[in-house]
Amino acid sequence: MNLYEHTIVVRQDISPSQIKQLTDKYSKIVEKNEGNLVKTENWGLLNLSYIIKKNKKGNYIHFKFKGSGKVVDELEKSERIDKNLLKYLTVKVKKFDLETNYFESKDKEKIHKDEKKK
Prior knowledge:
The protein is an alpha+beta fold. 35% of the residues lie in helices and 42% in strands. It has helices at 16-32, 69-80, 106-117; strands at 2-11, 36-52, 55-67, 85-93. The protein is globular.
């Protein structure tokens, strides 16, 4: 089984319940195609580096999963026709970094580092 990190960028005007539905939809596609979902992260609303389909911001959702190329094919086939998505990217990795949360707020990050020092 290969290890993959998959990120989708969703339109900025979508509701939190719709984001949850999209997360569930793509999680089920991974599981349905014999993939193993390791971690799902909602990175929140972030600025885009350039305007995509008249959007300056996008909601980022990140998946880490184990599976075959078939899982990636099914995910991307479904994402091509989804009007709520702006972009998607799948990257094959050698190992997962499950420790670091890159989009955690600075206050929480400082508290977390202080706890590790003790």
